[in-house]
Each structure stands twice: as structure tokens, then as C-alpha cells.
Amino acid sequence: MSGKNSQKVRALHLRELLAACPADLAARCELADLLEQLGETDEALAHWREALHRDPNNLQAWEGAARCRRGAGVLDESGPVRKDASEDVSPHVHESSEWTW
User: Fold this and answer.
1) CA 1: distance to chain centroid?
2) Helix 41-54 crosses helix 25-37 at what angle (to 10 degrees)?
3) CA distance 94 to 90
């Protein structure tokens, strides 16, 4: 089986796992990462956002969401600079989390 096909099979298994256990952050992050590698950035971003909704301090999810947003042209190359970045991830992230790089 080729690398891309094995990634697709793994993504299918992770989707099934998340259907049964949506709170599994390790599986959600792994799926989001695989989806990025497969070029499915919209779906990857949705999973990164869900991971951040469940754990706003998840650095892996913040980085993944930033990569997807940068790829979509939402961020410039210098990194996240929007003060309203929290609107994309979680109602649990407070406005006090404004940041720039």
C-alpha cells in the first residue's frame, strides 16, 4: 500500500474512533495532522478548532490551526497577528488572550 493510501486508511480509522469518542484529543490532533499532509486543510482546520475548543491550551492545535490559516491566506508569514484570533477557536478563550508574535 502506498504512503498516501495508508494515510487515508489511517484517517478513516481515526474518523471512526472520533465518532465513538469525540473527546479523544490525541486522535483528533493526529487526524488533523494527517489531513494537512493530504492537503485537506479545511477539514484539518475544523479538527484543530475542535481540539482547541476542548483544550484551549493545546499548543499542537494552535500551531496546526495557524498552519492551516496561513495556507488559506488568513495569516501572513510573520505569524498570528490578529487580536480576534480567539473567535476562530473557542468560546472559552478570553479576550485577555490577545497576542502577537
Assistant:
1) 27
2) 160
3) 9
- Contact criterion met (CB below 8 Å) for 32 and 54: no
Residue whose C-alpha cell is 476562530: 88
Give the CA angle between residues 15, 52, 50 to the nearest 5°.
35
This prediction has a pTM of: 0.71
The CATH superfamily label for domain 3-92 reads Tetratricopeptide repeat domain (1.25.40.10)
Chain segment 10-51, per-residue pLDDT in tens: 999 999 999 999 999 999 999 999 999 999 999 999 999 999
User: Quick one: DSSP state of residue 86?
Assistant: G
Percent of the chain with pLDDT over 90: 64
478570553: which residue's cell? Answer: 94
Residue given cell 498570528 in the structure block: 80
